[in-house]
Amino acid sequence: MIIGIDIDGVLTNLEEFQLDCGSKFMSENFNKSITDANAYDTIDIFNINSKIDDKFWSIYLPLYVKEPARKYADEVTNKLHDDGFQIYIITARYLTNRNDEKGIEMRKTVIDWLKSNNIYYDKIIFSPEDKLDICKKANVDLMIEDKVDNINKISKYIPVVCFDSKYNKICQGTNIIRCYSWYDIYTKISNIFKK
To answer: Is this prediction's pTM over 0.70?
Structure first.
């Protein structure tokens, strides 16, 4: 059995980072505040244009890529491996789909981050934003995801563990399992795939 795991918003707390660091940056530089705390990305959270968004991420991306993994993500990925699951990291992290120097550097950063946070995985797939085709081609049996579009598309084919956040509250369905922590994920996956 193969479990696919997203990074941003699942292994990391993207929501908290964007709200905290985005608020600081927008307040100090543009006197802007949060306009939609339930939005997925900084453009919509702060109602800004892509130029301001690029400026924010040019400053804060180096900090974000060093953020620690969510509590117990390391323990649970290792326990899932010990239980016989194969773990595929499937990420659309910014720049990782590029084959230039920046893409190579970001892929290395991701791999180093996984190692430094003791996140077990059998395979890593750097994917486009839409992960459905990747899940199908890789024969993933269950995906752990936070992005609304991916949850809705993938859940039509396989179960999706939706890592709870403000921006994905609208995701509901018979193939969508909402989880709130890594041990919640572990318990629910264990119950789905009881031997």
So the answer is: yes
Give tens-digit pLDDT for 78-127.
999 999 999 999 999 988 988 899 999 999 999 999 999 999 999 999 98
Alpha-carbon distance of 132 to 29, in angstroms, equals 38
Q: Which residue, 95, 108, 172, 182, is CA-closest to 144?
A: 182
Instruction: Give me the helices (H) in 39-160, please.
Output: 42-46, 50-64, 73-82, 101-116, 132-137, 148-154
The full set of domains in the chain, from first to last, is: 2-12+69-192 (3.40.50.1000), 14-64 (no CATH)
Q: 176 pairs with which residues across the strands?
A: 160
Nearest to 64 by CA among 95, 36, 90: 95
Q: Is 158 exposed, middle or buried (0-12, 13-18, 19+ CB in 10 A)?
A: middle
Distance CA 157, CA 33 (A): 39
Task: Please enumerate in sequence order all residues whose Cβ is within 8 A of that of 4, keeping only pairs 6 or more positions apart, or say none.
Answer: 88, 89, 90, 131, 134, 135, 138, 140, 142, 143, 144, 145
Backbone angles phi, psi at 174, to 5 degrees: -70, -25
Asked whether 91 and 127 are in contact (CB, 8 A), the reply is yes
